[in-house]
Amino acid sequence: MHFVRTDTSSQFLEEQVGAARKVGVKFAYWNYLDGGRESATLADPLGAVLGLEHVPYGRHSWVQFLDDLITLAYRYDGLVIVVDRADVLVTEKSDEMFDLMEAFLTQFHHWYDQKKPCHLCFQMVEDERLASFFTREAELRG
What residues make up the domain containing 73? Predict the structure, then answer.
């Protein structure tokens, strides 16, 4: 789990993300401002971005989110989740942020036991280059 405050260069992002994708690492970028405020639980919009199986979750959202996240550990060779605008998230929905952290940490051993990378990154300072990079990348991956 990472709390990121500094910005990174676009070249670094392109090189690192590109290299990781080539070896089977799944990346998911989600900006909290894109549906997080409106949603009763962060599991739904984040699960949609991750392409998880049972979205929307409904009443037991974090348990089902956790199960779906564990399933990814057996489908991919790694996972990186980037939650942008986490500065706003922690201010507005700290309980939901902690539920996300708990779900992530609970399932982490499934990746660790298989020696696969698994990262949850909270971008704590607005960085337009990060949003621009992942938006452009998503468009290219189409």
Answer: 2-141
CATH of the domain at 119: 3.40.50
Cα angle 43, 63, 107; round to 5: 90
Which residues, including other chains, have CB under 8 Å from residue 75's CB and lie 6 or more apart? none
Rg value, the chain, Cα: 14
Q: How many domains does the chain have?
A: 1
Instruction: Tell whether omega for the bond before 45 is within 30 degrees of 0, i.e. cis.
Output: no
What stretches of 1-142 show up as alpha helix (H) in DSSP? Answer: 10-22, 43-50, 61-72, 86-92, 94-112, 128-141
CA 107 to CA 67: how far, in whole Å? 8
User: Listing from the earlier edge strand, what are the strands of the sheet with 118-123?
Assistant: 2-4, 118-123, 78-84, 25-31
pTM above 0.85, yes or no: yes
pLDDT digits (tens, 9 = 90+) for 110-124: 999 999 999 999 999
- DSSP for residue 1: -
**What is the distance of C-alpha 29 from the center of its chain?**
6
Distance CA 11, CA 52 (A): 29
Token pair recorded at residue 135: 């938006």
